[in-house]
Amino acid sequence: EIVAWEEMYVQLRQFGEENGHYTTPLSSHSQLRTWIDEQRHNFKQNTLSDARIARLEGIGFDLVEGQTEVTFDDRIAQL
Prior knowledge:
Layout: H1 2-19, H2 30-44, H3 50-58, H4 72-78
C-alpha cells in the first residue's frame, strides 16, 4: 500500500503543478479522484497518518473539501 500511496501522491502533486489546483475531473482522472476521496475520508475518520497529512498539506492540498475559499480573482487567474 505504501508504494501505491506514493504513486498516487506523485500523480496528485503533478496534477497540481500542471493545473494550479487539485480539483480533479472524475471523467478523466477517476483513479486519482477516488484516491483523493479516500484521503479526505481517512482524514475525517482520523485514520490518516500525521506524515501523510504533512505531505499533502505541504503541497497545498485541502484535506477538508471546500475549506479553502476561492475568490473570483483566483478563478480568473486560473483561466
